[in-house]
# Entry
Amino acid sequence: MAHETVSRPLPPTIPRPQTRPWTLALLVLGLALVYAYGWKVTQIDIGQLMTNAHLIRPLVRDLIRPDVLSWVPRTQSASAPFSYSAEGAPAPAPPATGPRLLLSTPVAQPGQPLQIRGEGFAPNRPGQLIWTDQSGSSARGSEFRTDAQGRFTLTLPVPQMIGTHHRVTAEITLEGRQLRPSVAAKLVFGRLVETVFLALMGTTLAVIFAVPVSFLGARNLMARSPLGTVVYYVVRTILNIARSLAPLIMATVVAGWGGIGPFAGVLALALHSIASLGKLYSEQIESIDPGPIEAITATGASALQVIRYAVVPQIVPPFIAFTIYRWDINVRMSTVIGMVGGGGVGFLLLQFINLLQWQQAATAVWGITIVVAVMDYLSAVVRERVV
# Structure
């Protein structure tokens, strides 16, 4: 039995627009003129890079050798408290085994003689006194040397220091050295902790204000009445203006308002994050499924009830993801803000650069890099589990 061949109609061909050669030539010529002018305006000079390559070799060498660990002498120390005033003076610690420092009196005024005796130290070793005031600032004083029994005695005038309650420490230098974190590493670590919490507090303040603002900036919720439409456009305009201001400018302005320090950095990050999160939140609200809104509205629910039962369940996961991502951004941004007095590791990095301490600056750079990488990884894990 012969099979009949059924011919199927071919799909219609869509004619492709024809590009005229002279149009393409004009486009290429225009792009060439734009990039030629851009090359001239930006003063790009490849030859200068090759000629001055030797100037950055010391900098690159220091950047790959950060000041993290250092060999320091082994030490032995003991301390004792004293005060300018008998009222509230700290009680001297009872003598203990091992190195100990004994004062002739726990209360003395600046300029009065104070006898300092040390016992139980290593014999025949050099040492130095360290005076620490009530604010925690330290200053090195007289040098001495222990005798064959590990003792020493000094009589010195009490120095003038800040506050009333102080401490004197005797530090003996022993033989040998030990590997310890460098001073730069300790400073950078403390500032990195400050940077992370600076970003955390700025992000938290931003979320508190950005969430209600995002509902006012969502077209599908506000553009249902003339008043709501006006509020929508006003909120969107304010958010766009605030986002156009760089965080660095905000930090400069806020530093003059709230003073130089971490608080200025928190305010600067919070102001910029409110604008960014408000836009992200509002766009997420505009992209939700309108079905639940229409269904709950049809039951006669109020506007707040519609938001509570139809909008909030759809936006909580993306809101959490946006917030964590913004915290990650603020950690990186707080480094730049710290350079204008916003606290954090950026301020310390700027000091190292100004003093041409490139190895110490490399310690701050690597610390920032590690913290940002860890934050990026953790935020990615949380976003994957939440969204």
The mean pLDDT is 83. DSSP finds twelve helices and seven strands in the chain. Strands lie at 69-83, 100-103, 113-119, 126-132, 138-145, 152-157, 165-181.
